[in-house]
Amino acid sequence: MMLRPRTDRQAGPASSARADKGLPPAARALLVLALLAVFAGLVLAVLSLSEPAPGLAAAVDERIDESGVSHPVTAVLLNFRGYDTLLELVVLVLAVMGAWSVGRARGCAGNVPGPLLRQLPRLMAPLMVLVAGYLLWVGAHAPGGAFQAGSLLGGVGILLCLSGYPLPGWANGPALRVSAVLGVAVFAALGVVAALLPGGAPLDWPPAQAKTLILTIELAAMLSIGVVLAALFAGGRP
Amino acid sequence: MTQPVFWALVGMALVVLALYALIVHAHLLRKVLALNVMSSGVFLVFIGLARRTPGEDVPMAADPVPQAMVLTGIVVAVAATGLALALIVRLRVLTGRTTLGDDTGD
Amino acid sequence: MPLDPSGPGLAGPAWMLAVVFLPLAGALLCFLLPRLAAPVGLVAAALTAASTLALTLAVMADGTARTQLGGWAAPLGILWRADGLSVALLAMTAAVGVTVSLYATAYFRNDEHERTFFWPLWLLLWTALNALFVSADLFNLYVTLELLGFAAASLTALGGSAAALTGAIRYLLVSVLGSLSYLLGVALIYHGCGTVDLALVAACVPDAPRPAMQVAAGAMIAGLLLKTALFPFHFWLPPAHGSAPAPVSAVLSALVVKASFYLVLRLWVDVLGGGGRWVAELLGVLGAAAVLWGSVLALRQERLKLLIAYSTVAQVGYLFIAFPLAVAGGAVAWTGALYLALAHGLAKAAMFLSAGNLLRFGGHDRIAELDSAVHRLPLTLTAFALAGVSIMGLPPSGGFIGKWLLLEAAFEQERFGLVAVILLGGVLAAAYVFKVVGHAFTPAARERRIRAVPPGMEWSALLLAAAAIVLGLTLPLISPLLQLGPASAASAVTLAAGGGA
User: Fold this and answer.
1) Where, by residue number, does the polypeptide cross the bilayer (chain C) (predicted)?
2) Residue C208, domain member (yes or no)
């Protein structure tokens, strides 16, 4: 019974508008009242917060010299709270696994680009890769870093896909899987090695090597983020 | 009202509006959009309040820790959106439906 | 906590690293080597289970294990902390995890697509559970919650049917909504306290701005209740758990629901310092409603997997009946609820694995047509019946001990309404278990097409069911791990008692 297509609701937005009317006006009014009460509570909570604000800005500032980078957000992301970032890379890989498990991607070869999309990637793609590299490098001391750079790389992938650029065969096979997990693998492997050093802890970068380690991790993470975002855009396994 | 508090209140308003949209709209794409608006609201609260006056003599303009946390949250939200869209597209291909339907209970 | 260290052990931190990173490494390898997913996954599962056992023994010997990730101390860095409560849930996860892994090698043998994706997703789910149980950082817990939700939703969709996809989408939306509510609470706590470390937040809460802390606690706990499927937030659970492949249903019902319950308990006891009387009463009422509503709906189901799923809704209710009892001073109620959580984990996994066997055997799970299964699948039926004994709460099972402790607390406080609900829930559970067993014992009316069930699948189910029974005999061994909070709950300043939340 579940497999029977619901033809009466196939038409997308129009049918959703009909479904939207499912909630009776009384229930809707009740919902609005309840949500207003919730909002009042949330406002009260925000207004009760005191100034001067407690926070960790001073603590970050105090230890930033040992972190290997000079930009505070990068220091938090890849050193002080690097474990969060590792798990976040795992979340990205997991999203790709989940998307791949439900179906196949339509593929990019079928996209027929207009005149603009035919010319744009030639110009933009190399430039975007260059800017991604710059953002990665500048992240150590200014806003930037692996996520911003990886998002740009993902954008390159989407642009190439939209313009119908055929990916070489090798890019769809094991290489794609390897580059998707590279960030997590490098980050986790270095994190475990750091724990095995005498007196070390998981993800504990020795200050002298911290800069190199963070840049290595960010390089791998940038590649993985780019690949993962492009793969999520494609929407299924190749 | 200081500027940080103003942004936090805007964030809270976004959260509540998104909760309304999530409950009322049946179309799954709208539900996913509602969750995205809601996460933006939560991030705005988190980030906005980080610009309140810090206690000691701190050289930084804003607390970097919430910024890093929100960056993590954004990536998680992107992953959630990607996964949800993949599932929704598959459901649409399989059944033509773009709503949860009302007959899934049994 | 009763297990506070006499001296810092070095073994604990090493095994904590292993229980988080081994399943992660296994998941990545399974993804990279899809053809070898099953053997690689099984080895990773065995190693993870062995490390969990080692961590449990280390914590029992040396007390709470702690690690500073990145080498940074608390407000700046993230801490891992494994105490008795953590290792009890880690050990239950490992017991269910390694058995489900054995079962899955046989279950997915003939389906290459499901096999290649089950293993990496399942090992990531296990990673998320273990990471959640050892984390002592509110924001890090948010990331583990999301990891857990995405893995669970992806696994729910694995069967690929429209019902599975619908269940998975609803599950994902609910899970993200719950996480966002939790994160909103974390944001308020950070801006009220300037830290997200559990111990530091616990110390800060009494002096922090009260409305912010109350709203934060409310948002976090509401989000987690949604994920725990406490009545009336249970609507998403039966379709998701009922339409997933059997090994997936087993881990969703046995483990994933417990993770958010664990976090509610951890926040309530260790961070918010006992919580308010009024909130506890509300949770108790919802729990009682869940017991009755879930049991009645379970009884009315015609499909076995949905019956088992509604039984989970009911069993989750018992866990929340402990809140009013514990807040009123009966700390034994915590032990009872935790015992029930562990016993339910083992028994419910056994039930879903048995259901998977019956489904494989007959090609369907319509309860009325289960006739004669007992002759062909005696081990599976034994497993289902033994698991049923624990769900009903009959001696000597783990479920019996849990309910007994809850009853003890309820009698002591003369809460006869709760006593009645606990007993009635047991009677209803007996009714729905016998409904299944009774049909299975009926002689077949006519010959049906049947398929053989690999012995590994039958034995895995039986093993878990037996573990749920044996759990009842190990009270002296386990209860030191589950002594929650008489000290911390009584001495700490209650969050909402004064404000009335």
Assistant:
1) 12-33, 40-61, 85-105, 117-136, 148-173, 180-203, 215-237, 249-269, 275-299, 306-327, 333-356, 377-396, 416-438, 459-478
2) no
